[in-house]
Backbone:
């Protein structure tokens, strides 16, 4: 294994037998940002969930290894694994509306993990939360600590979720489409904030998104997924300059940009889809699904 | 993408089988009571009073579930009581549903002043304590089958109105309602063709629940002797009579109680089962 | 002019702040919009959440009644027409919705969904028209027998388009119709819509938060911000030399799939 987070041949199946992830391998180097790109149903969110151990009940890991900070999570007993993940990793979720409990004030929602899991004292945790809210550029943090989620805008809530993800100084953060629900101007602020925080704290980041534009702004490396299979893993610049896999090229060609109004938008061609479907089928034959 | 889309035929669940089975049995028993009841439910025979059910020693053949203190056959009385219980369940349940669901649908879909009037009315209505209300109504109308049905309808329509209103309101905010308007459908037409089919599963579940409630209300009113004349057997009446002699003859109390319990349970389970089954949207 | 909109205002009561007695305070959503939609135009309406772009669309289709100003459609003032007065002309302006899952009645088959509006407007040859509409959006005719939940997102959105064009309207409003789709089906739907506009001579208003999509499809663009028009003009001009500060901010915020874009 080479990365801080290193996933080796991870296979995840529905209990009914349908394969969701097909021997996925990828590495997130220490202090780097790795993007997971794919269309809906490609299984990109499931990788993050498998790492955090929050896969839906109907899914189970049927093979592979997840190495986090030198330990294979899947080989650990359940309770140890939960503790290890809790101390090492955190999540920035997609929807700032549902990720915060509407009936609780912001303060306790940030400090809870520090107090409950890491056994900080309440006053230490509160001081830390105030400091973090300042760091994510929330004006008047003391007042926000006492607010309820509905009193804050979507962008503010996403900032709070970022602050609470960084609260316990995790070494790995998984961001699952963190800006999909936001306006493009707010998205820009949030993406820069995540990038700043990541650099300042030296955190490794696994960034799940469907938006190639976002990837080109925040990621160092990336994997492209189709039907639960990694079709291309690349360094970011190389990927955008010289995408290798036909599916990657087709995805780029299908993404509209306002700079190129006349160039025709090419939907992913049938031939590419059938070729990549064939790859998936061959994989299934080889690994017997 | 790669997920398999297709008709999913869900098997009829155990819950639907059991509840449906029991209710079918009841309906058959009620319809065929004159032929399948072993004895005349009103025939008294003081020599055969308080006979235990068939598996206990010292019984007369033919009295399967024993006799009450007046020597009347418990099984036959339950069967005849079923007729009354089911009539009340069907008629009162359906009427309550029609009135409540219609008002709820109008309030929830049209909003505005129809909603204000109906909702205010429902609020006021629900402030009356229901059981007292029922007893009061029967006292005014006089006991009898029709009075019971009226009492149930008058008290319980609000349950339908409230739930259906909320459901119609949330369906009304959906885009397919706006798209019906864009297509040029009338308000009333939209309510019938777009909203109603989507509220129907909820209405069906409520209806079966209401039938169960109607059976209970009828039993309660019989229990306090406000139901039909004491001649015709009712489950509630039997429970009331059985209560006085529970130490000498438990079976007079227990068998109608079990029947009542199973029936109410079956109605509510049937509703849930039907709702799951007939909701085609695989959400 | 297909549409003439003059000083359009619309406010809605804020029920969350309604006092026990008396009426709720009103929130102004559209604050005096004036613009024209020429026949044959493809007008992009762009703005962030809360800009009032969807409300504007629904007011133009008279799903909402404006509180001030006027909307004229092909010479008829439709601002305050009643539903009964609107009904005979509804087939002339149609709408495609954002979420095909909630705008297609889940209990109907695709054929019925497309034929429904045709029936209401007393049109004949229903099956032929349904087949034609499916042909136009590039779906096989056999799809008429399917239910919406049996289709993919892109296919559902095509059914939404088929339903709108089956009536052969003069004007179509498309409200964020590609924002829920993957890029591959998004490109298909955009190309399809662009082709239909030319083929059928449609006038189209295309509401979106995504400037890249607007640039692909529209020849005029209108930028909304907090219920007001901040900029309106020809798309090419507006993108090359944006006048309003808000338009520039929007353009600069878009992350292009290009690592060398100046973005920070």
Residues:
């Amino acid at each position: 294994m080479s990365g801080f987070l290193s996933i080796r041949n991870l296979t995840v199946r529905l209990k009914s037998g349908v394969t969701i992830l097909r021997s996925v391998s990828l590495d997130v180097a220490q202090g780097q940002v790795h993007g997971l790109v794919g269309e809906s149903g490609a299984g990109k969110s499931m990788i993050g969930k498998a790492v955090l151990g929050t896969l839906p009940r109907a899914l189970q890991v049927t093979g592979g290894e997840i190495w986090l900070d030198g330990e294979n999570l899947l080989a650990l007993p359940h309770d140890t694994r939960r503790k290890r993940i809790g101390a090492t990793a955190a999540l920035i979720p997609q929807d700032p509306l549902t990720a915060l409990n509407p009936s609780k004030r912001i303060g306790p929602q940030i400090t809870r993990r520090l107090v409950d899991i890491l056994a900080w004292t309440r006053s230490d945790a509160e001081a830390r939360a105030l400091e973090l809210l300042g760091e994510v550029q929330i004006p008047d943090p003391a007042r926000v600590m006492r607010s309820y989620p509905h009193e804050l805008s979507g962008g503010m809530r996403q900032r709070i979720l970022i602050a609470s993800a960084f609260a316990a100084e995790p070494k790995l953060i998984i961001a699952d489409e963190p800006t999909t629900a936001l306006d493009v101007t707010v998205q820009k602020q949030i993406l820069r904030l995540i990038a700043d925080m990541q650099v300042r704290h030296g955190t490794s980041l696994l960034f799940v998104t469907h938006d190639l534009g976002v990837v080109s702004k925040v990621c160092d490396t990336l994997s492209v997924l189709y039907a639960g299979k990694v079709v291309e893993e690349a360094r970011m610049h190389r990927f955008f300059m010289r995408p290798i896999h036909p599916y990657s090229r087709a995805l780029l060609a299908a993404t509209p940009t306002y700079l190129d109004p006349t160039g025709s938008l090419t939907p992913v061609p049938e031939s590419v889809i059938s070729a990549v479907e064939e790859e998936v089928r061959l994989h299934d034959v080889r690994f017997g699904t | 993408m790669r997920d398999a889309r297709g008709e999913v035929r869900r098997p009829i669940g155990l819950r639907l089988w059991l509840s449906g089975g029991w209710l079918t049995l009841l309906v058959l028993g009620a319809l065929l009571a004159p032929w399948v009841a072993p004895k005349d439910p009103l025939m008294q025979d003081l020599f055969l009073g308080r006979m235990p059910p068939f598996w206990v020693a010292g019984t007369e053949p033919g009295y399967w579930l024993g006799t009450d203190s007046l020597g009347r056959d418990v099984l036959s009385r339950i069967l005849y009581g079923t007729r009354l219980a089911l009539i009340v369940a069907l008629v009162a349940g359906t009427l309550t549903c029609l009135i409540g669901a219609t008002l709820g649908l109008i309030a929830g879909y049209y909003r505005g002043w129809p909603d204000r009037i109906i909702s205010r009315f429902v609020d006021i209505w629900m402030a009356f304590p229901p059981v007292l209300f029922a007893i009061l109504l029967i006292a005014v109308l006089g006991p009898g089958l029709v009075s019971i049905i009226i009492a149930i309808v008058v008290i319980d329509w609000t349950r339908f109105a409230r739930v259906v209103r909320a459901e119609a309101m949330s369906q009304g905010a959906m885009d397919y309602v706006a798209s019906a308007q864009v297509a040029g459908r009338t308000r009333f037409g939209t309510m019938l063709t777009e909203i109603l089919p989507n509220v129907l599963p909820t209405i069906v579940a409520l209806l079966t629940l209401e039938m169960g409630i109607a059976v209970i209300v009828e039993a309660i009113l019989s229990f306090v002797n406000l139901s039909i004349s004491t001649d015709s057997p009712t489950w509630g009446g039997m429970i009331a009579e059985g209560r006085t002699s529970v130490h000498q003859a438990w079976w007079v109390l227990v068998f109608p109680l079990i029947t009542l319990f199973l029936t109410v349970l079956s109605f509510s389970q049937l509703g849930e089962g039907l709702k799951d089954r007939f909701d085609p949207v695989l959400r | 002019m297909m549409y003439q909109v003059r000083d359009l205002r619309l406010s809605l009561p804020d029920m969350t702040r309604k006092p026990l007695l008396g009426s709720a305070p009103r929130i102004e959503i559209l604050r005096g919009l004036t613009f024209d939609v020429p026949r044959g135009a493809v007008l992009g309406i762009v703005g962030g959440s809360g800009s009032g772009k969807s409300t504007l669309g629904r007011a133009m289709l008279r799903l909402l009644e404006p509180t001030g100003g006027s909307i004229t459609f092909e010479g008829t003032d439709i601002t305050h027409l009643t539903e009964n007065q609107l009904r005979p002309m509804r087939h002339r302006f149609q709408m495609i919705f954002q979420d095909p899952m909630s705008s297609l009645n889940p209990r109907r088959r695709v054929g019925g969904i497309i034929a429904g509006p045709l029936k209401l407007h007393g049109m004949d040859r229903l099956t032929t028209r349904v087949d034609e509409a499916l042909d136009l959006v590039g779906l096989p005719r056999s799809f008429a027998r399917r239910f919406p939940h049996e289709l993919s997102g892109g296919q559902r959105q095509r059914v939404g388009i088929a339903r709108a064009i089956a009536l052969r309207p003069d004007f179509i409003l498309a409200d964020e119709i590609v924002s829920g789709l993957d890029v591959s089906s998004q490109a298909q739907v955009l190309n399809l819509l662009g082709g239909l506009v030319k083929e059928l001579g449609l006038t189209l208003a295309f509401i979106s938060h995504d400037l890249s999509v607007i640039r692909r499809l529209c020849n005029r663009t209108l930028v909304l911000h907090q219920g007001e028009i901040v900029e309106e003009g020809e798309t090419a001009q507006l993108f090359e030399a944006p006048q309003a500060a808000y338009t520039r901010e929007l353009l600069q915020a878009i992350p292009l799939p290009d690592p060398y874009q100046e973005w920070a």
Q: What stands out?
A: Residues 12-278 of chain B form a domain with the MetI-like fold fold (CATH 1.10.3720.10). Residues 83 and 119 of chain B are 36 Å apart (CA to CA). The mean pLDDT of chain B is 83.
